[in-house]
TrEMBL record:
Pfam name, any one: Glyco_trans_1_2
Protein's name in the database: Glycosyl transferases group 1
Keywords: Transferase
Domain Spore protein YkvP/CgeB glycosyl transferase-like intervals: 197-339
SUPFAM superfamilies xref list: UDP-Glycosyltransferase/glycogen phosphorylase (SSF53756)
GO MF, one annotated term: transferase activity
KW Zinc-finger (keyword) present: no
Length: 358
């Protein structure tokens, strides 16, 4: 079976939901040939029904694929591609890893995805697919008539086998968060005063750092000192390496809202893979993963961070155990068959639909 994966421009989603699954499936020898590329080869022309209107997709090249996967399609042209591919007998999978119509006001994508309706279009496209693959169970609501498959995020073995953070013995411990405040406008505040309490108890021995764009994080958290800001690393392997090189303790606070209830367990998984002890919110996905120290109230954050700073042996023991769990069950090689099975199912769904329509 030949599968063509067409990717988004978002580096993280492309890496975890397209490039690395393709690599894992090919390496597993599952009888699936996978090609990854950005976009589809199309022919645009006037619509015969509206010759003075905008150009529409009149032809699309499946490049010999039995299954084409569209990652986060958000345009009318992608809907036209989906319909043309299905008319050729090609199965179409839509890959979603976010609830695109639930971004809260204040999120940097809210204007385009919510107010301008781009997210609604993406969800409408998903409902015409032969199958939808998602990163979390809550996203199955966008699958057409139950034709959805959850394939959880996983980590490549080469990342999980990098030298773990817990092998270091730094003089100053770094409590770190990876992200951009613009796309997490309310999450850091879930810690309340917990982070500052822990830092206050260990002056000169612990600091807070952000790998990404700190923005006004210091103001939001009412910190006595601005966080250290490490520049974002666009290369995902480089980013994963940086997590283990920069952070000793990782934090994953999430406001429990509709958007975040669909977010995957990726952040605590990444911390754990790199041997970084983590403290995280009790979101359903983080609970399902079961890695990291659970914190709900400010005093929970203060207690967990304080112990991690003060008790190095406990911190390393917890981090090492979490990393072993990643190696045992959360690598891309463990999810390869799930991806291949989903694509096979899409092929079967399209064959069935074509027979009914014949």
């Amino acid at each position: 079976m030949n599968v063509l994966l067409t990717t988004t421009v978002f580096t993280g989603s492309m890496y975890h939901r397209m490039a690395e699954p393709a690599r894992a499936v090919e390496e597993a020898g599952l009888g699936v040939s996978v090609t990854v590329q950005h976009g589809l080869q199309t022919v645009m022309a006037p619509d015969p029904a509206d010759p003075d209107g905008p150009l529409v997709v009149r032809e699309v090249d499946a490049q010999g694929a039995d299954v084409v996967v569209l990652q986060l399609p958000k345009t009318r042209e992608m809907l036209q591609c989906l319909r043309l591919l299905q008319a050729q007998g090609v199965a179409v999978v839509v890959e979603l890893d976010d609830h695109l119509t639930a971004l809260p006001p204040g999120h940097q994508g809210h204007e385009v995805l919510v107010r301008r309706g781009v997210g609604r279009l993406a969800e409408a496209i998903a409902r015409e697919a032969d199958l939808v693959t998602v990163s979390t169970p809550n996203l199955l609501q966008f699958a057409p008539r139950g034709r959805g498959v959850v394939v959880p995020n996983a980590i490549p073995r080469r990342v999980a086998e990098l030298p773990p953070a817990y092998e270091r013995e730094p003089d100053v411990l770094t409590v770190g968060w990876a992200g951009t405040v613009g796309s997490h406008p309310y999450d850091l505040q879930e810690m309340g005063s917990g982070l500052q309490q822990a830092l206050d108890r260990h002056p000169g021995h612990a600091r807070f750092a952000i790998l990404g764009q700190a923005g006004n994080a210091g103001e939001r958290l009412r910190l006595s000192e601005e966080p250290v800001e490490f520049p974002w690393v666009m290369d995902v392997d480089g980013y994963a390496a940086a997590l283990g090189e920069r952070f000793d303790i990782g934090i994953a606070p999430l406001r429990l809202d509709t958007f975040n209830s669909c977010k995957s367990w990726l952040k605590p998984l990444e911390y754990s893979a790199r041997g970084v002890f983590s403290v995280r919110s009790p979101s359903a996905e983080y609970e399902r993963l079961g890695l990291g120290y659970r914190a709900k109230r400010p005093r929970d954050w203060a207690t967990a961070l304080t112990r991690a700073i003060e008790d190095a042996d406990w911190r390393r023991e917890q981090a090492a155990a979490a990393r072993e769990q990643v190696l045992a069950r959360h690598l891309t090689e463990h999810t390869a068959e799930l991806w291949a099975a989903a694509w096979r199912r899409a092929r079967e769904e399209r064959t069935r639909a074509d027979r009914i329509g014949a």
